[in-house]
Amino acid sequence: MIVLGLTGSIGMGKSTTAQMFRDAGVPVHDSDETVHRLYAGRAMPLIAEAFPQAVIDDVVDRTRLGAAVLNNPAELKRLEAIIHPLVRAESEAFLQKNREAGTAVVVLDIPLLFETGGEGRVDKIVVVTAPAEVQQERVLARAGMSPEKFEAILAKQVPDEDKRRRADFVIDTGQGLQPARRAVDEILSSIRGSAEA
Fold first, then answer.
1. Does the first or last residue of the chain, that is N or C, have fewer Cβ atoms within 10 Å of its Cβ?
2. 73-101 and 31-40 helices cross at what angle (nearest 10)?
3. What is the Cα–Cα distance from 137 to 134, expressed in whole angstroms?
4. pLDDT tens digits for 107-148?
5. Where is the binding site for ATP, in residues?
6. In total, how many domains does the chain have?
7. What is the rounded distance in angstroms from the CA atom of residue 120 to the CA atom of residue 123?
């Protein structure tokens, strides 16, 4: 089974690209979606204990949690120590299930693949990219986003240029949906071709 790691900086079109892999019949494990689910389930009591101000009526308030950790490296580490092992366990279960099913290719959608040293968990890395002005426009259009918050998030991420240099495949989502979809198909053809060779 070939494990593709899908990553890219904020606003680069990773979620849309992950959906293109799903549309092509490839199972995708989405780390962000897993985090959302964990916040609503197993992680909630742990977060309530560590960050009581961020949990209201047994619901994690992501805005309050973000405010608690955004410019505070020690608190961010504390949150990551709760969340990362749980996400990792879920992704390992996903890989095991697909191995047993004889799946040929799977995708691990990991926003912070390089930042968390996740390269060793995947066979090939796909980086999604877009021109900086397209990225900025996409991110600032999000609810609750400010230029300052965007800069703070970017400062914690490996620069796009470095990610592209370390990738096996690069998909430029700034060209529109069709070229990105073609790139996904080409990646899958190339991987399946090399697996059969």
1. C
2. 110
3. 5
4. 999 988 998 888 999 999 999 999 999 999 999 999 888 898
5. 11-16
6. 2
7. 8
The answer to whether residues 109 and 18 touch, using CB atoms and an 8 Å cutoff, is: yes
Give CA–CA dist 121/118, Å, rounded. 6
Quick one: which H or E segment has residue 38?
Answer: helix 31-40
Q: Scan for tokens 């066979």, then name that residue.
A: 123
User: Could you list the residue range(s) of the whole structural domain that residue 86 is in?
Assistant: 32-102
Strand segments (E) across the chain: 2-7, 28-30, 55-56, 59-60, 105-109, 124-129, 169-172
Q: What is the pTM of this model?
A: 0.89
Q: Using the 3D structure, point to which of 102, 123, 152 is the last residue of a domain.
A: 102
For residue 79, give the 3-state DSSP assignment.
helix
- Between helix 132-140 and helix 147-156 the angle, nearest 10°, is 120
Where does a domain end: 102, 117, 146?
102
Binding-site annotation, residues: 11-16
Q: Please name which of 20, 46, 25 lies closest in space to residue 35, comparing C-alpha atoms.
A: 46
Q: Hey, what amino acid is at 148?
A: E
How is residue 104 written in tokens?
């040929």
